[in-house]
Design brief:
The complex is a heterohexamer of chains A (166), B (395), C (129), D (146), E (370) and F (159). Chain A is of the alpha+beta class. Chain A contains three helices and five strands, in the order ααβαββββ. Chain C folds into two domains: 46 residues, no CATH class; 59 residues. The C terminus of chain C is likely disordered. Classes of the chains: A alpha+beta (166), B mainly alpha (395), C mainly alpha (129), D alpha/beta (146), E alpha+beta (370), F alpha/beta (159). At the E-F interface, helix 1, helix 2, helix 5 and helix 15 of E face helix 3 and helix 4 of F.
Chain lengths: 166, 395, 129, 146, 370, 159
């Protein structure tokens, strides 16, 4: 009796499976046709909290290096030079260098995106929200050096942001 | 045909005309085969995509329709590897029987009452024999690679194909009983255009034979649920693990070519082949000598493609059997039933020499009822999850 | 009739030429950079141990043996089946049916024998050392 | 309860966290067998080692599914010998755990059926979870520096 | 007498059935296996050593990578361990969010398991359907914390983000959509005769073996042991929530076969839906983060905390020496012990069964190797 | 014949032929089913319905013999690196490598680890680096498109 039950069960379940796959032929695919055939660019569809590549707003960076300390893998590299102020105002922020006081300049702010693990530990201690996640996610490249994001151009140091002055 | 041709070219010897004619037919069939196997691979991917809620190839050419061409050219340009420890001669030899085994069957497939490569009087036996070549190729591929996965794949394919050849041949016997001939044209012409004149509905045993035929043909074609020889999750890629580039492509070719052969055989043996209703034939004959054949070809293609599509859908629905279950299905289920259907058909023909019309209609309508239930059930499935099927969170 | 088989032959020859030709044409275009690791046997990323050519399990041969018996007998039935309809029309249907039935019965008995002997079961223990 | 049966077991109760029993290395098989058979600790849920610079500690987290309660055993092991009996005959799950401890800490288990490295390649040098472990400069020609 | 030779095949590290980088050295005479030796360590990433180097807070993102398929529960287990050691307790709303996240992640993890299982048996479509549903869960997580796979959401002392504005509605919408999908999935594959036949009576793990080999979670319950950390060693807000623990009953074959283990996961997905619904209803307003110092320095102590991950009882054994870095962190995972039982059960199975057996254990390679 | 062809100067026919062949090659990138860690899940999702690499003609093959592209999806330990290199070697030419995610790019967050290879480019040439941990499927698709651009620019027959 099991013999015929097996045949019947096989036929019935195969039939059931076929109806499901048949019904799927009449459903819309859920594919988002990245990159070009989407209603709006994928980057705009992402939720506001999306953790894409890190970006730094150098205008409000205080140079406190808290993010550098928070990063478990040291993928953020900040170098700060202590300088006595030059007679000329500093290139990026012209006014308001209290003359005479030793000034800190951010000479290097590199984020190694190839190394970054997008954990978000660096954005949390930032006092001004200068370091934050953008929604950008596409940066495939043939050259791994292009994955080093440099927020301070070489030779053009940036003066850190001060709450009192801004 | 050949007589007329030789009249056209009186200066050429008869055998040469014949040879040229045969060559032309062969080239046409090969071209047809290639042109079938390629696009059907694209079609399969699109259908599979739909079943899986995705799209499938749509970038290469309009809607991705020349995807298969790109695949072909790419494999053509791919390095051809032969492992150092492999049996090199056998390794090179293996694709030939696989490819030929499938393509040779095309010679006897009747596309219309006229369009047939060669109407062999042993047609069915020939097809079975030619199909048998495939297994030689698969074993050769499995054995020659000196790789354990391919060996397992080759052995599995051997066990599977020989096991399923028995029910296949036995189910073909039922057709032979009913038609009294092995020639495919005769088999088709002893059926009619109307469904009740088809062999599949002539008696319940013939219907069983048809089911057995379909199952074992799918197994012969190494399609899911019988794709053990190339079981991807178990044997990496089965017998063709070591094959790359063009040689691999021939195995692929054969797989999709097989689809057509299965569909065409099912159509011509059980479903009346190219038979068209008399009304259509009269209408078409009035328009000229070509049109009836066009209708016939279209009818044949229609019947074939239904099975091709069904087998494709089956592949993307079912899981795969295990080796012992595979053997069990063949020897313990299909073969006994094939015996029953042979004797039953014979008995039926003795008892009802003219056929029993009621039973034919009963079978036809129960088939229609199953199809109707299928459609209803599919719509039910659609509605069961439909309201949420387009659910997208961020788009 | 012989014409038809000529077609088969020519078809076969053309098919072989098709494969051979495309492989040959490809050999002019495709790259060839052999290296010792590349021509090793693939085994999931580990070096392959031992040869793949071994005395394989008997079960496969057993199935082959059963197959040969059944296939030959099935082939023998083709001629009988082909003339069955003629016999039927000439009124000898019952005789023909009895013949076919007897033949199938013998075949089925064979199958039953193999079945009961459990030679169809894959997992049957095979003596090995 | 274990205290009554085994006088040599020393109960340790730190201020924070649960306590454990300190068992001499050579008695561990006996203790474990009794715990499994008589006290229904049918599962060894975690076995690990700690390198405490001066000595090793091997920690056994037992669990009883029938009574749903845990028990912790500890064994102190001198660094010189760093050999102790294996409990893999009592709980089969100890087999792999002991192999892991051997691999990463270098503690050898006697009577273990198959004491090989499990995580690291066979030709790896050193036992990385030891506090004194220094990372090699290269392995199989691959530099380990970035 | 014809001699049958054994052949030794290396199955993996790159093999479609070994999900990742497991390796099995298989001795077989064709189809039936005589001996299977798992070889692990291809993904040994030295998590435990890293924990000793980077400190308590910095180690949090690493816990995502221990079990990437179900990262939330790993986060949760680790956070619980450190909280226990340092004497921090998370606010109630955070606990609710943790449970919601964990259960959603359990759904997505079991989806992967069910899909991969179907794929290993040869059906490709259910796998893609599972992936499709998983995408939606990922969308929910993306809304919640901005990442799809490595969340770093559950933190020591709370969670990193509060639920966004329409999170509850989206969650309920997803659950309403998902529950019928499970039924459809079942009709498509779980009840399929071929599928049932492939899994029933295959790789039977007896109750005694399961306990002795320290199987945990669904694998243990598949063998008929009613034990769930959420029920029996309650943590977080699970005591407040009403849910069932499915146990293997051998519905298609013997208790403890592959089909039991598979069906338990399917049932657990439904239970998880139930839990998420309840948690969403009960969730109070309030803080999501307790006061946590910038450098956590637990007292000298040791803690063993257990948490029900998708792969079962996940234990973090934490030894602290009073500094801001763990002295020793041992991660006890379910997959590790599940792998060790393969050696015991596999002989006598066929190659195809081994594939099914491995995927029914739901082994995730980095959890084995860490 | 090929050597003869290689000596031909660049003219319209050869460049067009190259373009055509490259177009075919780039439209049919079969990638190897090879995933080690977290990125493997995203690789699955990439082949899944939301992102669907099949659109570009990219399908997974499980044997290296039939694949053109190896996606290093996840952490490679030293034990695995040996196998990975062997698998790479066993792929027939022309072959390409995408390093997916931080671990494959440069060791990523396992830079503190003693057993993880710091960057797959130490053992094999890498064509495209995809940043992310793990990269979302769209980012990986971006990598594939960049690879296709690269393939299109190659001089296949005259390299």
């Amino acid at each position: 009796m099991d013999y015929f039950k097996n045949i019947f069960e096989s036929a019935a379940t195969v039939f059931e499976g076929l109806t499901i796959t048949a019904s799927h032929m009449f459903r819309k695919p859920i594919t988002i046709q990245y990159p070009d055939r989407t209603l709006s660019p994928v980057i705009e569809m992402l939720p506001s909290r999306y953790r894409g590549f890190l970006e730094v707003d150098m205008k409000i960076c205080t140079g406190c290096t808290l993010c550098m300390q928070a990063c478990p893998i040291q993928c953020i590299n900040i170098e700060i030079a202590k300088k006595t102020p030059s007679p000329q105002p500093s290139p990026s922020r012209g006014e308001g260098d209290g003359g005479g006081v030793p000034m800190r300049l951010i000479t290097k702010f590199n984020i190694d995106i190839a190394l970054c693990m997008f954990c978000g530990l660096c954005t949390e201690p930032c006092p001004t929200g200068a370091i934050r996640f953008s929604k950008r996610f596409e940066n495939a490249t043939e050259d791994i050096n292009k994955l080093m994001f440099k927020f301070v151009e070489e030779g053009k140091p940036v003066a850190p942001y001060k709450k009192s002055s801004g | 045909m050949i007589q007329q041709l030789s009249l056209l070219f009186p200066m050429l010897p008869m055998w040469l005309v014949q040879a040229i004619w045969c060559g032309v037919v062969a080239v046409l069939l090969l071209t047809f085969f290639s042109l079938f196997a390629g696009p059907v691979s694209w079609l399969e991917r699109r259908i599979a995509g739909r079943i899986m809620s995705r799209i499938g190839p749509n970038r290469v050419g309009p809607q991705g329709i020349i995807q298969w061409l790109a695949d072909g050219v790419k494999n053509f340009l791919k390095e051809d590897l032969i492992p150092r420890d492999a049996d090199k001669i056998l390794f090179r030899f293996a694709p030939y029987p696989v490819f030929l085994g499938v393509t040779l069957t095309l010679v006897t497939l009747p596309f219309s009452s006229l369009l047939i490569g060669a109407d062999l009087n042993v047609g069915l036996l020939y097809i079975v024999g030619a199909w048998g070549l495939v297994v030689i190729g698969l074993i050769a591929a499995g054995w020659s690679s000196n790789n354990k996965w391919t060996l397992l794949g080759g052995m599995r394919s051997a066990a599977q194909m020989i096991s399923y050849e028995i029910p296949l041949v036995l189910s073909l016997l039922v057709v032979v009983l009913m038609s009294g001939s092995l020639s495919l044209q005769t088999i088709i012409s002893s059926q009619g255009a109307s469904p009740v004149e088809w062999f599949i509905f002539s008696n319940p045993f013939a219907f069983i034979a048809f089911v057995i035929f379909m199952i074992s043909a799918v197994a012969e074609g190494n399609r899911t649920p019988f794709d053990l020889p190339e079981a991807e999750s178990e044997l990496v890629a089965g017998y063709n693990t070591e094959y790359s580039g063009m040689r691999f492509l021939f195995f692929f070719f054969a797989e999709w070519g097989n689809l057509y052969v299965i569909g065409a055989l099912a159509a011509s043996l059980f479903l009346g082949g190219w038979q068209i209703p008399a009304g259509w034939r009269n209408f078409a004959s009035a328009q000229g000598p070509i049109l009836p054949h066009v209708f016939e070809v279209l009818m044949f293609q229609l019947k074939t493609w239904i099975w091709v599509l069904l087998i494709i859908q089956l592949r993307w629905t079912l899981p795969r059997l295990r080796v012992d279950q595979l053997m069990k299905v063949s020897w313990k289920y299909l073969t006994p039933f094939a015996f029953v259907s042979i004797v039953g058909t014979g008995l039926w023909m003795v008892v009802f020499p003219e056929g029993w019309l009621f039973m034919k209609y009963l079978l036809l309508f129960s088939m229609l009822a199953v199809i109707g239930y299928f459609v209803w059930r599919a719509i039910w499935q659609l509605r069961f999850t439909k309201s949420k099927a387009d659910f997208k969170l961020i788009v | 009739m012989l014409n038809d088989f000529a077609l088969v032959l020519i078809f076969a020859v053309l098919g072989i030429l098709f494969i051979f030709g495309s492989l040959l044409a490809g050999s002019f275009l495709r790259p060839k950079n052999p290296n010792p690791v590349k021509s090793e046997i693939y085994e999931c990323g580990e070096p392959s141990k031992g040869s793949g050519w071994i005395n394989f399990n008997m079960r496969f041969y057993l199935i082959a043996l059963i197959f040969v018996i059944f296939d030959v007998e099935a082939a023998l039935m083709f001629p009988v089946a082909a003339v069955f309809k003629k016999w039927l029309l000439s009124g000898n249907g019952i005789l023909a049916l009895a013949e076919i039935g007897l033949f199938v019965l013998i075949l089925a008995a064979g199958l039953l024998y193999v079945w009961v002997k459990k030679d169809l079961d894959w997992a049957k223990k095979v003596v090995s050392d | 309860m274990i205290k009554e049966k085994f006088t040599f077991a020393e109960e340790v109760k730190p201020q924070a966290g649960g306590g454990w029993y300190l068992v001499p290395a050579d008695k561990i098989v006996e203790v474990c067998k009794t715990l499994r058979d008589d006290y229904k600790f049918d599962c060894l849920s975690c076995l690990t080692g700690i390198d405490l610079v001066d000595y090793f500690e091997v920690v056994y987290h037992l669990f009883s599914y029938s009574e749903k309660k845990p028990l912790v055993l500890k064994v102190k092991l001198e660094k010189q010998s760093s050999t102790m009996p294996s409990v893999s005959a009592i709980w089969p799950s100890a087999n792999w755990m002991e192999r892991e401890v051997f691999d990463l800490l270098g503690i050898k288990f006697e009577n273990h059926p198959d004491l090989r490295r499990i995580m690291l390649p066979e030709d790896w040098a050193g036992h990385p979870l030891q506090k004194s472990y220094k990372e090699p400069e290269e392995y199989c020609g691959m530099s380990t520096k970035r | 007498m014809i001699r049958t030779e054994e052949m030794t095949i290396s199955m993996g590290p790159q093999h479609p059935a070994t999900h990742g980088v497991l390796r099995f050295i298989v001795k077989t005479d064709g189809e039936v296996l005589h001996e299977v030796k798992p070889d692990v360590g291809y993904l040994h990433r030295s998590m435990e050593k890293i924990a000793e180097k980077v400190g308590y807070i910095s180690f949090q993102p690493y816990t995502d990578r221990i079990d990437y398929v179900c990262a939330m529960t790993c986060n949760h287990a680790y956070a619980m361990a450190v909280e226990k050691a340092a004497g921090i307790s998370a606010p109630e709303r955070a606990e609710y969010l943790r449970v919601i996240a964990s259960e959603l992640n359990r759904i997505s993890s079991h989806l992967i398991m069910a899909g991969v299982m179907a794929m290993d048996i040869g059906a490709f479509t259910p796998f893609i359907h599972a992936i499709r549903e998983r995408e939606t869960v990922n969308d929910l997580f993306e809304m919640l914390c901005g990442a799809r796979l490595t969340y770093n959401y559950v933190r020591i002392g709370g969670v990193s983000f509060d639920a966004p504005a329409n999170f509850k509605e989206k969650c309920v919408e997803f659950l309403n959509h998902f529950e019928p999908i499970i039924d459809e999935f079942n009709r498509l594959i779980s009840f399929n005769k071929i599928y049932v036949e492939r899994l029933a009576n295959v790789g039977v793990v007896s109750r005694e073996d399961a306990i002795a080999y320290n199987l945990v979670g669904p694998n243990l319950r598949g063998s008929g042991v009613r034990f769930d950390v959420r029920k029996d060693i309650p943590y977080s807000i699970y005591p407040k929530i009403d849910f069932n623990v499915p146990v293997g009953i051998g519905e298609a074959g013997k208790v403890g076969d592959c089909y039991d283990r598979y069906m338990i996961r399917i049932r657990e997905m439904k239970e998880s839906c139930k839990i998420v619904r309840q948690a969403l209803e009960q969730m109070p307003e309030g803080e999501i983060m307790a006061k946590v110092p910038r450098k956590i320095k637990p007292p000298v102590t040791e803690v063993y905390s257990r948490c029900e991950s998708a792969r079962g009882d996940m234990g973090f054994y934490l030894v602290s020496d009073g500094t801001d870095k763990p002295y020793r962190l041992k991660i006890r995972t379910g997959s590790f012990s599940a792998m060790s039982i393969v050696e015991k059960i596999a002989p006598g199975l066929m190659i195809a069964d081994l594939v099914a057996f491995i995927s029914s254990l739901d082994v995730v390679a980095p959890e084995v190797d860490r | 014949m090929l050597t003869l062809y290689k000596q031909l100067p660049n003219f319209i026919l050869t460049t067009k032929l190259d373009e055509l062949l490259n177009w075919c090659r780039k439209s049919s990138v079969w990638y190897m089913l090879f995933a080690t860690a977290c990125c493997g899940i995203e690789l699955m999702q990439t082949g899944g319905p939301r992102c669907d690499w099949d659109r570009f003609g990219a399908v997974p093959r499980s044997t290296p013999r039939q694949s053109d592209l190896m996606i290093i999806a996840g952490t490679i330990s030293y034990k695995m690196a040996v196998c990975t290199r062997r698998l790479y070697d066993q792929m027939p030419d022309p072959k390409y490598v995408i390093a997916m995610g931080s671990c494959a790019n440069c060791g990523g967050l396992f830079k503190h680890s003693y057993s993880v290879l710091k960057g797959i480019d130490k053992v094999m040439p890498v064509d495209i680096y995809v940043p992310g941990c793990p990269p979302r499927p769209e980012a990986l698709t971006d990598g594939l498109l960049k690879l296709q651009e690269k393939m299109q620019k190659e001089k296949f027959l005259r390299s």
